[in-house]
Write a structure and sequence with these properties.
Length: 126
């Protein structure tokens, strides 16, 4: 299996399975207490849901080899990283980040996003 095929499959799986899966976990943990969290929490959850849908769409575009797949994937990775950073530093939803672990978590989010953007760039060149 060559690099292009393997990297495309991994990127597609990340966008099509991992991103919506983490949103599903977030949704299930937030739903029991949404009545107490207010409008901001509903708005935040809706934005996270839209990002998950966009990521899934980009992952599917890679699977069917759509012409704009890599551009959509780059946007999806960037938006997903932005939403993840937002969740690390400011959220009205339940989160399980220990006090003092915000900086390491933010660094991991940035490294993850940079890795996938690097993969997309390599795929774009080939």
């Amino acid at each position: 299996m060559n690099f292009r095929r393997l990297a495309g499959q991994l990127l597609s799986s990340y966008l099509l399975i991992w991103a919506p899966g983490t949103f599903a976990v977030e949704l299930m943990s937030a739903l029991p207490s949404m009545g107490m969290r207010g409008t901001r929490a509903w708005l935040e959850l809706a934005v996270h849901g839209l990002v998950a849908v966009f990521c899934a769409m980009a992952g599917r575009m890679i699977r069917i080899a759509a012409p704009a797949a890599l551009a959509a994937a780059a946007i999806a990775v960037g938006v997903r990283a932005a939403v993840s950073l937002q969740s690390v530093f400011w959220t009205t939803l339940p989160r399980d980040i220990a006090p003092g672990a915000q900086l390491p978590a933010a660094i991991l989010v940035c490294v993850n996003g940079a890795f996938w953007l690097f993969v997309i760039r390599r795929l774009n060149r080939q």
